[in-house]
Amino acid sequence: MKMYIDGQWVGSSSGREFAAVNPATGEEFETVPMGGEEDVKAAVDAADAARKSWRDLPASQRADYVLRAGLLIREQLDAIAKVDVQNVGKPIREARREVGAAATAAIYFSGMARRMYSNVVDSEQPKKFTMVVRRPVGLVGVITPWNDPASLGMWGLAPALVTGNTVVFKPSSNSAVISAELVKVFEKVGLPKGVLNMVTGGGGEVGEALIRNRRVDMTVFTGESATGRHIAEVNAPLFRRQVMELGGKNALIVAKDAELEVAARAALYAAFSSAGQKCTAASRIIVEEEVADKFSRIFADLASKLVVGSGMREDVDVGPVISWSQKEKALNYIEAGEREGAVVLAGGGAYEDEERSKGFFVKPTVFGSAHNDMKIARDEIFGPVTAIIPVDGIDEAIEVANDTRYGLSSAIYTKDIKNVFKAIDGIDAGLTFVNQGTVGPEVGAPFGGVKDSGFGMELGEEALEHFTKKKTVFIDYSYGDRPWYFGLPKG
Ligand code: NAD
After folding, report:
1. Does the N terminus or the C terminus of the chain have fewer Cβ atoms within 10 A?
2. Residue 157 located in a structural domain
3. For 228-252, what is the mean pLDDT?
4. Tens digits of per-residue pLDDT, 372-415?
């Protein structure tokens, strides 16, 4: 594959490439340009040159490109979903939903062009009109991770483009091939050259060059908290605008009055979809003591029945993790959990069989009798590992839920309205789901976290605030003196 700069598909200026690996087989299936500073500069030059013409186009016309891109993704859904499976290992049913969500985001944000409202302020003086106009921020660097490459990519690209910004897109090296599918769609609908550019390569080279480039006006970053903190440090002295969507260690609370089977099924999907590689994954399941054993039995039994294998198979529930190193990381956490005294109730290691030992598969692992101070309950594992933590009542459950440096998603299963409101009020997170797992945002509602999970919410109408800057305009139509002017003689 190639990078996309100024409307052309090009290799890296150094000629270097790296291999894209299928996580289900460990086999290389594509080569990807290893971009560097020169390539970022070329992409920024192109995005810079396209600023004016793109910004001058009425928003409704900009939105037409984004709408058509969304509709084209829907038309090609199955083919693009297969690239998603091949590149990041998602099960095909999940990949279709993820790619579908990318289309939905494009369609939703194309409508924003007709909702770019602003304010008229009643002036304090007579014969004066005061209004606020919105303008694009300028040139936006969109940096994405690999776990939901199509949808997360579109969450940045679509609102940035509709609101009149030009973009340099830097996808994760682990998902460059599927990310290029988004760019191809924009190319097919005739997006003018330079408006969207994509540079592939390492975070330390391409990402770093992009954030160091002073012509970039805004960073939209989704990734690890540590990377986000570093980028925020680079942005701060430049007073650069940024949206930070970072890691999570999300708690799902199960109250003793909950229907345990229903809660367990939802928790299972929240913990193990995308093989647990979701910023919103339910990695701590906090259960009231009285039902902890029963819940644990139901949950572990369901986990052990999950179908784990190549995402290309329609019957597969859980695919591989993204890479060999991510597999090692998950296995190390499983060992740490056992060392610290949590009990493995399901899974607990890698697969030995011929097919799965070639790929990066980890058994969906459930720890029971865990404590919130264990490593498995503190760190973001980003793999198919979750821990059940028994607690004494809902107040303690909320305390434990909050005892983390993260604050992205949360959930509670209960039929008791008091518990519901305690959770809404008490959990310090960007999202709280009631009687749903921790996953499954909606495009029309703001999405984001607090604490180390980041700041600035994506999706919903919030996007308009992030991707436009406001200017207040005062129009004095008295065209005369004001009482406070200097009392100089006239004429
Ligand atoms: P990562 O931080 O390693 O990488 C994310 C992106 O940043 C990649 O494109 C990478 O190349 C780039 N990058 C790395 N170093 C950089 C630098 N110095 N300058 C600029 N860019 C740089 O994250 P990852 O491992 O790809 O993704 C997993 C993480 O993403 C998890 O922590 C997960 O929780 C988080 N995530 C958050 C959300 C959310 O919306 N809050 C959504 C999905 C994933």
Report:
1. C
2. yes
3. 98
4. 999 999 999 999 999 999 999 999 999 999 999 999 999 999 99
pLDDT > 70: percent of the chain: 100
Can you tell me which atom of ligand 1 is nearest the CA of 453? 41
Name the domain count of the chain. 2
Helical pair 149-162 and 59-75, crossing angle rounded to 10 deg? 160
- Report the alpha-carbon distance of residue 352 to residue 362 in Å, rounded: 10
Kindly give the distance from the C-alpha atom of residue 320 to the centroid of ligand 1, in angstroms, as a whole number: 19
Nearest-CA residue for ligand 1 atom 20 is 207
Residue 37, H or E segment: helix 37-56
Pair 179, 171: CB distance under 8 Å: yes
Contact 340, 383 (CB under 8 A): no
Shared-domain flag, residues 225 and 283 = no
Across all residues in the chain, what is the average pLDDT? 97
Residue 50 shares a structural domain with residue 101: yes
Paired sense of beta strands 468-476 and 128-136, if any: antiparallel
- Kindly report the length of the chain: 491
Q: What is the CATH number of the domain that holds 369?
A: 3.40.309.10
The reply to whether 447 falls in a domain is no
Ligand 1 atom at minimal distance to the Cα of residue 208: 19
pLDDT band (50, 70, 90) for residue 447:
very high
**Taking 90 as the threshold, does the pLDDT of residue 85 lie above it?**
yes
What digits encode the pLDDT tens for the residues 29-68?
999 999 999 999 999 999 999 999 999 999 999 999 999 9
Q: Is residue 99 within 8 Å of 150, Cβ to Cβ?
A: yes
38 catalytic residue (yes or no): no
Distance CA 196, CA 46 (A): 9
- Reported in sequence order, the residue ranges of 122-272 that DSSP labels E, i.e. its strands, are 128-136, 139-143, 166-170, 196-198, 218-222, 241-245, 250-254
Catalytic residue among 181, 208, 279, 288: 279
Q: What residue ranges line ligand 1, CB within 6 angstroms?
A: 143-148, 152, 170-172, 203-204, 207-208, 211, 222-224, 227, 230-231, 245-248, 279, 380, 382, 408, 449, 453-454
In sequence order, the β-bridge partners of residue 458 are 447
Looking at the structure, do residues 220 and 263 belong to the same domain, yes or no?
no
How far is 68 from 107, CA to CA, in rounded Å? 8
Task: Work out the pLDDT band at 490, boundaries 50, 70, 90.
Answer: confident
Asked if 182 and 211 sit in the same domain, the reply is yes
Q: Whose CA is nearest to atom 14 of ligand 1?
A: 203
Residues 430-450: what's their mean pLDDT?
97
Question: Is 30 marked active-site?
Answer: no
Rounded-to-integer distance, Cα 30 and Cα 22, Å: 9
Q: Find the domain containing 269 and state its range.
A: 250-434
CA 245 – ligand 1 centroid, Å: 9
